Amino acid sequence: MTNQEIKKQYIQTAFEITGQEGEKSVSIRRLAKEIGCNSAILYRCFQDMDELFLYVGFKFLKDYLHDVASLLDQSYDSIELYFKTWECFIEHSFQNPTIFNGLFFGKYPAKIDYISKDYYSMFPEEVVQFNDELKPIFVSGTLAGRNYMMLQRCVAEKIIDDKDTALLSNLIVQMYKGYLKDFLDRRKIFDNPQDREDMKNELLGSYRTIVNRFLAGNF
């Protein structure tokens, strides 16, 4: 097998173990046994296990990408589509908060764009549903990059002023980061579908309030 084929096997196997048993069940020795190779081969494909889990994190976006693609077929204007895509993203991230936190706010932030491009070069079928205009948004490695490009669609429709997009994008992402951390902390104590729904709605309500103030020119 080529290095890329082995790399794909590592990602797929780690993803399956994580999904079934949790991230702590993934080890270098177990991966090597499952794949049928020497443990040292992992380091020919990844810098370390942390880097492997970033690739695995993109695999966990597959269901989100499927759901968000269906939203793009609806007749929403750009600002409503912006809120709908965030709602979809929050729902999926609260189902796998540790994975999403590690992917977007974890180790190797400087490498995440490269890892995203590398991942989708190996699994192009996971973004085939997006056209050339939308694909850059959903293959961007950083959440800030995705969010900024979605806001630029609102700028193109003259819903938001271009001078406000950088500030607004940063506010939205930082608010999400805080909510995700809070959700992770609370999840240690209790976690149920209603708790997820309440936090999601609270965050989305805050988003609408902030964005509407920008629309009204109050900032």
UniProtKB/TrEMBL annotation:
Residue span(s) of domain HTH tetR-type: 4-64
PROSITE patterns with a match to the protein in the record: HTH_TETR_2
Organism: Sporomusa termitida
SUPFAM superfamilies per record: Homeodomain-like
Molecular function per GO: DNA binding
Record keyword rRNA processing present: no
Lineage: Bacteria, Bacillati, Bacillota, Negativicutes, Selenomonadales
UniProtKB keywords: DNA-binding
Gene3D superfamilies, A to Z: Tetracycline Repressor, domain 2 (1.10.357.10)
DNA-binding region: 27-46
Name of this chain's protein: HTH tetR-type domain-containing protein
